[in-house]
Every structure is written in C-alpha cells, then in structure tokens.
Amino acid sequence: REMEAKFNFYDLYGYLLPGIICVAILAVPLALAGVPLPAIQLGEALILLALAYVIGHLLNAWARPLFVMEWIKEGAARYSPSEFLLRPGGPFTPEERARLLRAAKIPGDRIEPPVALTRQEASQVFGSARAQAVSGESSRNFEQYQGMYAFMQGIGAGALYGCAASFATVAAQKMAPSA
Fold first, then answer.
1. Residues 154-164: tens digit of each pLDDT
2. Which of 98, 93, 127 shows the shortest CA–CA distance to 110?
3. pTM higher than 0.70, yes or no?
4. Given phi > 0 = left and psi -120 to 50 = alpha, else beta, which region is 92?
5. What's the confidence (pLDDT) of residue 82?
6. Nearest alpha-carbon partner for 10 in 136, 133, 149
7. Residue 179 pLDDT more than 70?
8. What is the number of other CB atoms lying within 10 angstroms of the CB of residue 14?
9. Under a CB-based contact definition with an 8 Å cutoff, are residues 98 and 111 in contact?
10. Rounded Cα gap, residues 117 and 166, in angstroms
C-alpha cells in the first residue's frame, strides 16, 4: 500500500504522536514520585522516538477494537454506516447509488430493481470508493483525514493505557511496605 511505503502524515499522526504521548504519560508517575528523569542526548532521543513509533503501532492495533463504529438503527433494522447510506431510499439518488454499485462491480440484479445490499456488498462499495479517493487528486486530503482519525484513536488508547499503567505504578508504591 502506498500509504505505508514512506513516512508520511499518517505515520506521524497515527503512530508517532500517540506513542510519544503514551511514553510521556508513563513518565509522569516517575516524575511525581521524585525519580530523577535522565538527561537525554541525541542518540537516546532517537531511540526513544523509535520506541514511541513502535508503541504507536501497538496503540493503533489496540485502539481499533476499542473504537468501533456505531450501528445505525432504523425501526427493527440495524445498519453499518455503509449499508445505511447505500440502502434503497437512502440519501443517494437512484442514479448515484447505481453508479457507485456499478463502479464496485456489484451484479446488475442487485442494482435494478433496488434491493438492500448485504454487509459484504456494502463493504465492497466502500472499499471501491476508498480506492478511488486514495488514487485521485485529493489523496493527500484523504490521507490526512485518515491520519487524524488514527491520531484520535491512538490518543484515546494511549491515554487509557498510560493512565492505567500510571495508576498501577502509584498504587503499587502506596501499597508497598515502607522500609
């Protein structure tokens, strides 16, 4: 995938910054406990950045199941966002819907007369639209939106993990018998 071929906006916002924030949150209990934090030279800073980048990847993988999409309910039916948008009578005109489905190579009998798509078909249409967006002139904007989405997920996951680890560290110190 082109997005992962070079260090870019997604890497910066999706992995590196959440990793840096998580590392910083993990250092807070040490600083509060009076543990002197070491002075960092350039070599150690680069190693710390690489570690933060790896932690950012872990946070991203951990955050995806935490921040799942909302299901849209309409009466007794439950839709994924793609299914909801692509349902007959949805926000797209019949012509727009048909054009999207044809571009995703959905069989013609699923287009006319309009029938509800399966979850797999809706996902296929979404994937086709995503591929078009990434390959077009607006691919940088698309990459930035995806990076910001991953950033928000990573910040949430990093804050949850960092605060839980910090709380555990402080609790362990408080419960340890004093010498």
1. 888 888 888 88
2. 98
3. no
4. beta
5. 79
6. 149
7. no
8. 27
9. yes
10. 46
